[in-house]
């Protein structure tokens, strides 16, 4: 049975490309691939593109791009989706060029963004390796994909969203966190992983008060120092910190969260778990963080 290997790319609609270009390279440590009238391409590793930005006033998540290792696996998976009654469209050649992949299909999420399923990512030439202006090391990417995203489920669509990710997309449940983060506000989050084993490539929780679909995206660094250095760059630049340095009990990530130019958050982390299905136990946790992650009142 075909299944998703990893979260291969993410597409964001942003209203200020100039600000994002500075932010992506000087704060996050990404490398600008190319920019044109339609948007901006960002690199994390040997892939020509891991994150793409399109000029769009939505300032939110547009696309989650799911990678398959072979064309055969992709075709089998898409056939399964159609058998389940999912409306799946072929991504046209013009968009394939912008996605920098060989073949892709797309369907809609219950919460308004697109899922794209692809194989054959375009890689950079050997003479053009990934370079960051600010990172001491690099990103944990490659086989594990870009990191993770947490899109909210719209009011009343929590169960539908969970069923879509688990039963339709066939993502595997990693664990759950249910915590009252402030009086009357319960976070009930479900975390999903792919065949690659990264603890979670996507997580979701229903939030009726959310003004954006995307709560945050996470980028994992190879060197612990790069979390602290990114935190210092963020504070020095006057970027609002949403959650200060801390540690999650489920994926065991040391990280912090802060605000992007589009209003949703980013997380920079180190030390995340890679799941071994042979000995993994799905658990339910009662706290988002076992230490740190002091919450500032901007989220």
UniProtKB/TrEMBL annotation:
InterPro entries: Glyas_Bleomycin-R_OHBP_Dase, Glyas_Fos-R_dOase_dom, VOC_core, Xdiol_ring_cleave_dOase_1/2. Its cofactor is Fe(2+). Residues 6-120, 145-271 form the VOC domain. CDD domains: BphC1-RGP6_C_like, BphC1-RGP6_N_like. Pfam families: BphC_D1, Glyoxalase. It comes from the Bacteria. GO terms for molecular function: dioxygenase activity; ferrous iron binding. Keywords: Aromatic hydrocarbons catabolism, Dioxygenase, Iron, Metal-binding, Oxidoreductase, Repeat. Gene3D superfamilies: 2,3-Dihydroxybiphenyl 1,2-Dioxygenase, domain 1. Belongs to the extradiol ring-cleavage dioxygenase family. This is 2,3-dihydroxybiphenyl 1,2-dioxygenase. It comes from Pseudomonas linyingensis.
């Amino acid at each position: 049975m075909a299944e998703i290997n990893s979260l291969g790319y993410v597409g964001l609609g942003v209203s200020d490309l100039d600000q994002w270009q500075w932010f992506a390279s000087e704060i996050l440590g990404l490398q600008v691939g190319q920019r044109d009238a339609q948007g901006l391409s960002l690199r994390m590793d040997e892939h020509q593109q891991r994150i793409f930005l399109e000029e769009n006033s939505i300032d939110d998540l547009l696309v989650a791009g799911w990678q398959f290792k072979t064309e055969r696996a992709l075709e089998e998976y898409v056939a399964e989706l159609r058998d389940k009654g999912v409306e799946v469209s072929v991504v046209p050649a013009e968009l394939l060029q912008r996605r920098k992949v060989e073949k892709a299909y797309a369907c809609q999420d219950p919460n308004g963004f697109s899922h794209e399923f692809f194989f054959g990512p375009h890689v950079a030439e050997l003479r053009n390796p990934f370079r960051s202006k600010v990172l001491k090391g690099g990103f944990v990417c490659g086989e594990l994909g870009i990191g993770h995203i947490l899109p909210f489920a719209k009011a009343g669509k929590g169960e539908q969203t969970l069923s879509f990710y688990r039963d339709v997309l066939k993502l595997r449940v990693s664990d759950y966190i249910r915590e009252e983060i402030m009086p009357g506000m319960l976070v009930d989050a479900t975390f999903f992983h792919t065949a690659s084993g990264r603890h979670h490539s996507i997580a979701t929780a229903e939030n009726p008060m959310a003004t954006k679909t995307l709560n945050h995206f996470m980028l994992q660094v190879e060197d612990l120092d790069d979390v602290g250095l990114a935190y210092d760059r963020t504070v020095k630049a006057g970027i609002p910190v949403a959650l200060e340095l801390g540690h999650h009990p489920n994926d065991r990530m040391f990280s912090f969260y802060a605000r992007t130019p589009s209003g949703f958050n980013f997380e920079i982390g180190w030390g995340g778990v890679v799941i071994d299905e042979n000995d993994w136990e799905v658990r339910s946790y009662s706290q988002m963080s076992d230490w740190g992650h002091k919450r500032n009142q901007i989220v």
